[in-house]
Structures are given as structure tokens and as C-alpha cells.
Amino acid sequence: MSLKAERNKKKIANKVRKGFRGYPAATIAYYGPTNKKATKVAVGIVVKENAVPAQMKTWVSTEDVRNDSLILEEILGFIADYSVKSIAMTDAIIGCPHQEGIDYPDGEECQECTFWKGLDRWTGERIH
């Protein structure tokens, strides 16, 4: 990982570590074909309590997005554009990067990301 990527990663982690400081808030979630490599990151901006994200942006890569200095820099810029006061971020990759109903039919499992089949993305336990 480049020095620039490491710095940007630390900037995001520091904002997360500060905890909730008010709105607007950002949510950051990582997705990947397995729980080891994140190929997609989604960032949402929530402007008030109990609201759905007012803005959402995703980045995708064939490499791990968590180590991509350009993507991390763009995330920081996106967050700054909305004067975000708080950031909530998942500690782990939370599922397949493909979207149900868009990349595969509703009600089915992704045929590309077999790692996630029958796996609870929050606990890591088998559900089937």
C-alpha cells in the first residue's frame, strides 16, 4: 500500500474513532467477492436522524478499494463536500459487491460470489 493510501486510510479511521458528533453523517461500507478483498465501497450521506441517505456514491475496482489512494482521496473529498461531522464505518467486508435485482434476479443469490452463499454477512455464520 502506498504512503498516500495509508495516510488517507488513517484520516478516515480518525474521523470514525471520534464517534458521533452530529449531522450530516457519512456511512462507509465495503463489499467484495470474499471477506478478504473489498472491490466496492459505498458511502452514504445522512443529513438528519432516521433519514435515508440524501446522497450515495460507490467506487469499484478490481483491486482492494481499501488500499487505493485515489479512491480513498475521493471518499475524503466526497465527505468534505457535505461537511460531514460523523462517520460510521463497518469493520469488515459485509457482503457481495453485486446488487440484487440489478446484477442478478430478485430473491436469488449472486452466482459470481459463491463465498457469500448461505453466510450471514454480519456474523460470518452459516445460515443454510
Mean pLDDT across all residues, rounded?
93
Number of domains: 1
Sheet with the most strands? Answer: 4 strands, mixed
Number of helices: 2
**Major sheet: arrangement of strands:** 3-2-1-4
Fraction of helical residues: 10-25%
Give the helix/strand class. Answer: alpha+beta
- Percentage beta strand: 15-25%
Order of helices and strands: HEEEHE
What can you tell me about this protein's structure?
This protein is an alpha+beta fold. It has one domain. It has 2 helices and 4 strands, in the order H-E-E-E-H-E. It has a 4-stranded mixed β-sheet with strand order 3-2-1-4. Helix 1 packs parallel to helix 2. The chain is globular, with a radius of gyration of 15 Å. The chain starts with a helix and ends in a 35-residue tail after the last strand.
